[in-house]
Automatic annotation (TrEMBL):
Coiled coil: none annotated. It comes from Actinacidiphila alni. Residues 164-178 have a biased composition (Basic and acidic residues). Residues 158-191 are annotated as: Disordered. GO terms for molecular function: lyase activity. The lineage of its organism: Bacteria, Bacillati, Actinomycetota, Actinomycetes, Kitasatosporales. This is Deoxyribodipyrimidine photolyase-related protein.
Amino acid sequence: APRPHWLFGDQLGPHFLDPRHGGPDADAPVVMVEARSVLARRRFHRAKAHLVLSAMRHRAAELGDRVTYVRAGTYADGLAKALGRGSAQELTVRHPTSRAALEFVRARPGVEVLPAGGFLVPHDDFARWAGGGRTLRLEDFYRWVRVRHELLMDGDEPAGGRWNLDHDNREPPPRGRDTLGAPEPWRPAEDDIDAEVRHDLDRWERDGQVSFVGRDGPRLFPATRREALSALRRFVTYRLGDFGRYEDAMLAADPVLSHSLLSAPLNLGLLHPAECVERAEAAYRAGEAPLNSVEGFVRQIAGWREYVWQLYWHFGEDYRHRNALRHRAPLPGWFLDLDADAVTANCLSTVLAQVRDTGWTHHIPRLMVLGSRALQDGWDPAAVTDWFHRCFVDGYDWVMLPNVVGMSQYADGGRMTTKPYTSGGAYIHRMSDLCGPCAYRPTDRTGERACPYTAGYWAFLHRHRDRLAANHRTARAVQGLDRLKDLGELLAERDRRDGDAPP
Ligand code: FAD
């Protein structure tokens, strides 16, 4: 008889079970474990808990008699329940996406770990590419993936003659408009399984078994393969064309703009990255979407997403504890509770409300509003990572560590990025409509209306002056510090500030 196969909750697409793509034996019985301990350990966004449980239960319903779906306290209990306690039964599993889960499966006798399923680049290929002590740069990695997977290539040359069209993809939002007016993104309709999930979450919350943050409105992201394909189709057909141009812009009334909203179904394994980039390329070849948008989208998925996945394993377990800037401040209560209404700075309040209501924002609010606040105020990077992991529908250990420890908090001292990502209010003002109605002014460094991002930016440069002066990418910004006549006043004002007062 074929060995049973254990399916994790982020391995939900059909390709994970396909024997031709590294999956288990064709008719292997499937085990799924819904472990309460995962939810009880941390205070997740409720919409995220809802999405993951809904997706797992939908998958179980599809697999029907083939699956044993157990609800248990822990993974170990669940497996015992499904397979019989004490049985040293052999089991297969696809390579999990977190170190903790990988250790768990490796420690169990009789478990064979099959190759990971949700990515373009196998670990061994990356190891060969990264070997020989080369500097790991996204741009080099991305070009290598493009060539190897023949993505947007004309022979040996990149389609259109350029590898990187980022330059065309940094436009501020169109003036005087509060939305882009792009066709609506795909959104699901809930069903009985969602109702059951909501009922269970209510009950567990009432019993005090779990506690959540955020609002669990109607489900906003795909929970099945069919839904995920609808979302992908809608994006490629109607929204991809404008993806590039306003990729970095922010509008209060239009948080999604032309972003794909595909990170959640990708990270649940409902979509394979190859099908996403192939469909985008097909749209370009058919003349239905411009190159800057298609290249931008391919770069996000075949470049960034793959790169982050590989770096998670490459950097090792210690990476989680890196704190190169020695930031130790705890996260303030209003941030932990997603209390957007307590926040005065309009950009932060708006973005925090988006997280509270949907568990999602696009990359610039994550990096330049939320992450930048944490960096400027010196919050403990491990706690910031945990916060992102819990509060975002697409957050998983593998994707959080490089993005938050490295990209956003510079806690790795520059292994992942060449400089810290933070800015004063001027950047937010240029790229959004968030500063107009704000009580603060992006140009003000001191005084009543001093923008917390502008003041925070200079204070950050000052605090890490030596390190940043030695980095050629930030040296000029540090020279700017010396020309500030009001630096002393700015720092004194920040010291006087009530530590917990939300900006
Ligand atoms: P789009 O803008 O439409 O991009 C297309 C796809 O590219 C995304 O769906 C995603 O799969 C992929 N992608 C792009 N950038 C990245 C990246 N840096 N890492 C991984 N995938 C990427 N992404 C997550 O999937 N999960 C996270 O927990 C996560 N946390 C982040 C935290 C911070 C501080 C930052 C700066 C970025 C984070 N990202 C994360 C990356 C990015 O912000 C999201 O993938 C994106 O906003 C999701 O929305 P979308 O699907 O509309 O993306």
